[in-house]
Design brief:
106 residues, alpha+beta, 3 helices, globular
Length: 106
């Protein structure tokens, strides 16, 4: 009986350790790279806003937002654990975006 309990405990412990090892979160730089690739852009072409973390439908996400000054603004929500794009939006640059852009350049 003791041997069965110890074996079961060892199996459960191994499964828990494997789960932790496989669930490594995605880095912010990897999230930026994913967003840039999806937009078909390079880092030299854009100005990034600081990345923030938030929750969307119970999962933790990176909010990766960037501009092509004077042209477009991009918003990507990327799952922190999988690197999957959860949501994305592209809008045309508007006059009030210059205020935020100027603030980012400080």
């Amino acid at each position: 009986m003791k041997k069965t309990i110890l074996t079961l405990a060892a199996i459960v412990g191994t499964m828990a350790a494997a789960t932790v090892v496989n669930a490594a979160p995605v880095s912010q730089s990897a999230a930026q790279k994913t967003a840039l690739e999806a937009a078909g852009l390079k880092a030299e072409q854009v100005v990034f806003k600081p990345i923030e973390t938030d929750y969307d439908d119970g999962r933790e996400i990176f909010e990766v937002d960037f501009f092509i000054p004077g042209q477009k603004k991009y918003e990507f929500d990327i799952d922190v654990n999988t690197g999957e794009i959860v949501d994305q939006d592209v809008d045309y640059w508007e006059a009030d975006d210059y205020i935020e852009y100027a603030y980012l350049l400080k």
